[in-house]
Structure formats: C-alpha cells, structure tokens
C-alpha cells in the first residue's frame, strides 16, 4: 500500500469513527426494530421525557406526590409504556401504508391536525405546559401518530374490520427485536424483565 493510500485509509477510518461517535452520542442507534422499522434511543428518550413531564404535571393537578414518579419502578414502567406505544405506532403506520398511498396519508393527517389546531388555539401553550414540548415536537410525537391511528381506524370501520382484533394479531405476528437489557417483547407487548 502506498503512502497516499495509507493516508486515505486512515482518514476514512477517522471519519467513520467520528461519525459513529456522534451517532451514538446523539442517541441515533436502535433500541428496537419492529419488522423493518427502527426505533432509536433518542426517540424513546424524548417520548419518555414528554410522558414523565405530563405525568408529573398531572400529579400536581390532582394533588398527588410527583416524587413517586422518580422511583426506579415508576421510571421503568414509563419507559416500558413509551416503547410499547412506539411499537404500536410503527405497526399502525406500516398497515396504513399498505392501505393508503403515502401522499394521501400525509394529506389526511395534515387536514386532521390543522382542523384540531384551528379548533384549539391554545395547543402550543398547553403542549409546552403539559408535555414540555414545542408545537412542532408535539405534532410529531403526539398528533401525527394519533392522526394515523384515527385514519386506520376509520378505514377499517368502513371495511367492517375490527381495529382491536387487527392490532392484537399484528402484535402477535410482528417481528420485534428489543436491545434494552431490562425490557423484552412478549409477543403482544413490551414487559419489564424480572
């Protein structure tokens, strides 16, 4: 190998190493794979923080002790529920894409979300106060998955199909890999390993 090739090889390894470090540092590595959909650590963490913030605010409103949410057991359950919801969202989106074109999905979802935002002018303030999310984050983490679910439920209702039965079967037949040591896929849901 010539000096020039050795230098290029070394530079390529360095660039790859820095890119890998940045990806890992920013949480851009898989926590779970649902069929072919990757759920990253950063997605789980951001949704976990939003869920925890919401539950802490709800505890304050209902005069409960928000410190109870700081226990390892509570945090583990919130993390479990967060990943379970993300897996469900991935299954819904996958099924929706088989029934509706991508462009149509986006158009219908945007219409639903814009109608919701028009009817509820204080969503931005509420999203920040309740979830600690900006409006854009709230849309991507809460409103868009909910719109996809409503679209699929509507399509299934028109086809006289049972959404609940479909979801149960989709979970049973899904290929789900979980890369978190304290969580596992039971074939129907995420559970905390004993």
TrEMBL record:
The chain crosses the membrane at residues 7-24. It comes from Candidatus Harrisonbacteria bacterium RIFCSPLOWO2_02_FULL_45_10c. The lineage of its organism: Bacteria, Candidatus Harrisoniibacteriota. It comes from the Bacteria. Keywords: Membrane, Transmembrane, Transmembrane helix. Gene3D superfamilies: Porin chaperone SurA, peptide-binding domain. InterPro entries: Trigger_fact/SurA_dom_sf. This is Uncharacterized protein. The keyword Transmembrane applies.
